[in-house]
Each structure stands twice: as structure tokens, then as C-alpha cells.
Specification:
Elements (H helix, E strand, L loop, with lengths): L18 H26 L14 H9 L6 E3 L5 H7 L3 H8 L23 E2 L8 H15 L5 E6 L6 H12 L4 E7 L2 E2 L2 E2 L20 E5 L3 H16 L5 E6 L17 H9 L2 H9 L7 H24 L16
Parallel strand pairs: 1-2, 1-3, 3-4, 4-8, 7-8
Antiparallel strand pairs: 5-6
Helix pairs in contact: 1-2, 1-3, 1-9, 1-10, 2-3, 2-7, 4-10, 5-6
The structure holds thiamine diphosphate and magnesium ion (MG).
Thiamine diphosphate binds next to strand 5.
Length: 334
Amino acid sequence: MRITRPQQPDRKDPSSYAEELLIQMYSRMLLIRRFELKVNELYHQGIMPGTIHLSHGQEATTVGACLALEQEDVITLTHRGHGQALAKGVSVRSVMAELFGKATGCCRGKGGSLHVGDLSVGALPAIGIVGASSPIAAGMAFAFQRAGNKWIVLNFFGDGAVNEGDWHEAMNLAALWKLPVVFLCENNFYGVSTHISEVTLNEYLAERAAAYRMPAVTIYGNDPITVYDTVGEAAGRARKGEGPTMVECLTYRRGGHKRDDSGSYRPDEEVDAWFRRDPITDFRDYLLTDERIPPARLDELEDEVDASVEKAVEFALASPDPDAACALEDVYAE
Ligand SMILES: Cc1ncc(C[n+]2csc(CCOP(=O)(O)OP(=O)(O)O)c2C)c(N)n1
Ligand SMILES: [Mg+2]
């Protein structure tokens, strides 16, 4: 693989992909979008506690990447992890309940927004320290390699992580030991309010991988098919013992860094340009090409997704708080 300039790709005709896969891509992206908008509303109404980092706008990257994996493969999640968790298949009810701090949450209500995940579907509960998940991903991949199984690890991180020492150590050892990892950068161009050009001279972050002799590619991350195909190839290499790949996906968050941030430091023209490349409306148009998927089917899916989000809120609100007696459970390995 080589570094390529990102641009909206010429996509293959939808008939090149199984209908079931296309439907799953659309419904998972839509689930993340509707979930995040609902969560935003609940926070601002003061109904939901804690803090949140929303991922709407980045749905194509997380869904394309996770659908290219096997159920047993493990992902590591970031502080912007709701979408990553839902994309890997963590149940919407358990993520919602976790955000409310309820005992039925995916971490039994003890983690909240910054730690969502569920290892039973291969989603290691999120790590909020920027860059810190990369050595953990490499360590898990090392364990998989030693055990001789075919599982791989996909390490999600943001553009902010590539300037952290942890990240470089992980990249170096993973390349040296040919560990089965896909290093997936969700480059949304900002670390909080700092544009990436203020902290590095690299035009694309995938250039960094050359220092470790690791193959890398920069792609347009708002198209789930491009992400799916690229991660599928990288995962295949990892599974065959050919080592890690860095995949940099260019994308954009639709909201600010976190709930009290409007993102006003971003120039209007930039925001407009990315908002016009909305991954969900673009993909809907693509699916409707030659009526490959009938519009009524997509409307039906939208209703199903909305209903599942509403039910998740009801479920979370009706769930009990964790029992204080379980505070020290799940802290140490048994
Ligand atoms: C080591 C470390 N430094 C600072 C922070 C505070 N912090 C949380 S998110 C964030 C920005 C991360 O930017 P990026 O990696 O690009 O991810 P994005 O928020 O854009 O998804 C920072 C600085 C942290 N969590 N960990
Ligand atoms: Mg960022």
C-alpha cells in the first residue's frame, strides 16, 4: 500500500456488494447518528449526567472499519467511543444505560461515556488517555500472536495521538514483531481546538508510519465502502502474519470537542465543506442508485433505528443504579 491523496472516491456500483452488508452499513451509521443526537438532547436537558464527546460525522469510518472485522477481533476505543462501540456491535441499550450510570450498562454503570465497551463483542472498554490505547492494542496483538490464533486488533485513535510517545513505541514494536494490528487514525483535523497543522509538519499523518517501515494509507473516511475495503485488506495482511498497517481516515466531527464546545474556532468554509460531505446522506444516495435498495426499505430502517434509540432511553431510565457493594468488583483480575 502507498500513501494516496484523499478525495471522494469513484465508488463501485452498489451491486458489487452484498445487499445485507450495505443495509448493515447504513443502519449502523444511522444508529450512531440518531444515538448521538439523542444523547446530546438528553445532556442539554440535564437528564443525563457526566460529560460526552460525540462522534456524529465520523460514522463512516467507525462502521466501515468494524464491519471489515470478525466478531472475535478486538477494537480499542477512544474518549470519542460511543460510535466505535455501536459499530462493533455493543448493544444500544447497554451503551445508553452506561451513559446514565445504570447497573444494566455495558460496564455495569461504573465507566460512563468515557469507558464504553463490551469484550463479549470484541470492544475493549474505552481508554480516555490520548495515545495510551496503542501499546495496549500492541500488547493484545502480541498475546494473540503467541497464542497462535487468527484474531487481530484494531486500534482506534485520533490525530492528537500521533504526537504522544506511547503511540510511537507501539508503532515501532508492532512493526518489528509483525503484530496483527490495524492502527486506525480518525483524523478529524482537530485535537480539542488545535488544528493539526499547528502541531506537525506532516501533511498526512500516515507519513509517520514510514519511520517504522510500516505500510500506510490515507483515505477519504466519510465513505464506509472505502474504509471497509481498505481495513479489510489491512486486516487480511495482519491475519496472514504480514504485520500491521496504518490506515488514516480523513473525516470531521459535526459537533464541538465535547458538549460545552460549539466548535467556533473552525472556519465557516471548512465546516460547510465537510457538512456537505455528510456520510449518511451520501451513502443513502449511493444506495438509491438505480433503486438498488428501494427507498421504502430505507425509510423502514430509519423507523426501526429511531424506535431502538427510544427504547434504549426507556430501558436506561427504568434501570437500577449500581449497588454500592459492587464498587470494588471488576477492579482486579480474578
Ligand atoms: C495524554 C492526554 N493528554 C490530554 C488529554 C485531554 N484530551 C482529551 S481528548 C483530547 C484531544 C484529542 O484529540 P484527538 O486525538 O485528535 O481526538 P478527537 O478528540 O479529535 O477525537 C485531549 C487533549 C488526554 N485525555 N490525554
Ligand atoms: Mg482529532
